[in-house]
Amino acid sequence: MARRKKVYEGSAKILYEGTEPGTLIQYFKDDAGHGDGETQTTVEGKGVLNNRLSEFFMTGLNGIGVPTHFIKRLNMREQLVRMAEIIPLEVVVRNFAAGELSAKLGIPEGTALPRPIVEYYYKDDRLNSPMVAEEHIVAFGWATQQDLDDMVALALRVNDFMSGVMLGVGIRLADFRLEVGRVWEGEYMRLIVADEISPDSCRLWDLRVVTDRSDNQPVAEPGPLADVYNELARRLGVMPSNVTHTTKPTLIN
User: Helices in 88-133 by DSSP H: which ranges?
Assistant: First the structure.
C-alpha cells in the first residue's frame, strides 16, 4: 500500500490527502486535550466513537440543507471530506451560561440565556485562541462582513438542529464550537461546516435526572453527561459493537 501524504495533524485528528481531487481523509485519534492546549491523554476508543458521532451529525445537517465538508465514512476511524479553506476562527454558540462565560460575567452556571449568543475566537494556539470582535475579524481580513453574517446564520441553523437532536435523547446542549470553511463552485464561493461535531466540541448536560427517593423529588439541575462518548453514542443508536469503554473527558470552552 502506498504511503499516504499527511497534510495536517492536530490534537484529535490527522488529515491526509484524499483519494479524489479536492478531498481529504480525516482520521480520528484517541488523544484527548485538557483545555490548556498542551496536556494530552489517550482515551481508548474515543476516535472510533467521534468518527461515528460526527458522521451522524454531519449527515443530519446535510439532510436538512446545511452544507458540510462530510462526504462519507470510510472505516471505523476515517472519513472522506471535502477540502476547504478554513476560516481561522472558532465559532462558539452558547445557549446556557457555563465555563468561561460564567467565570467572566458572574452569571450562575446553568442559567438559560435570553437567546443563543454567538462568539468568535481567533485560532492560534500560541495565543490560547483569544476571543475577538467582528471589528477585529474584518479589519485583519480573516473574514468579510458578509462572511460573518453567513457564519451566524449557519451556526444558528446548526444550533437548532443539534439542540433538537440532543433534547430528543434527554441531553441539554449548553454550548458548542464549530469551524467554517470556504469552498468554490466555479466562480461561486460558499461557506460550509468543517472539522467535526462531536463531544469534543460540545458541552452536554444530562436531563435524565435521578429521583431522590427520600422525598420523591428530582435533582434540581442537570449535570454533565457521564461517560459522554459512550453514552451519547448509545442514546443516538450509533454505538459500534467493537469499541472499548472510554473515560470521562475534559470538556472545552
Answer: 99-105
For the full predicted model, state whether its pTM sits above 0.70: yes
Angle at 217 between CA 213 and CA 220, to 5 degrees: 120
DSSP H or E run through 25: strand 23-28
- Grid coordinates in use for 22? 479536492
Terminus-to-terminus CA distance in the chain, angstroms? Answer: 40
d(CA 61, CA 70): 10
Q: Quick one: average pLDDT of 36-43?
A: 63
pLDDT of residue 104: 94
Q: Residue 204 and residue 201: Cα distance in Å, rounded?
A: 10
Could you write out the DSSP letters of every residue in 41-72? EE-TTHHHHHHHHHHHHHHHHHHTT--BSEEE
Contact 129, 122 (CB under 8 A): yes
Could you tell me if 244 and 45 are in contact, meaning their C-beta atoms sit under 8 angstroms apart? yes
Angle between helices 46-63 and 228-236 (to 10 degrees): 40
The residue assigned the cell 472499548 is 244
Q: Which residues contact 102 (CB under 8 A, 6 or more apart)?
A: 108, 109, 111
Cα 105 from Cα 154, distance rounded (Å): 26
- Pairwise CA distance, residues 191 & 91, whole Å: 13
C-alpha span between 229 and 245 (Å, rounded): 9
Q: At residue 218, does pLDDT exceed 60?
A: no
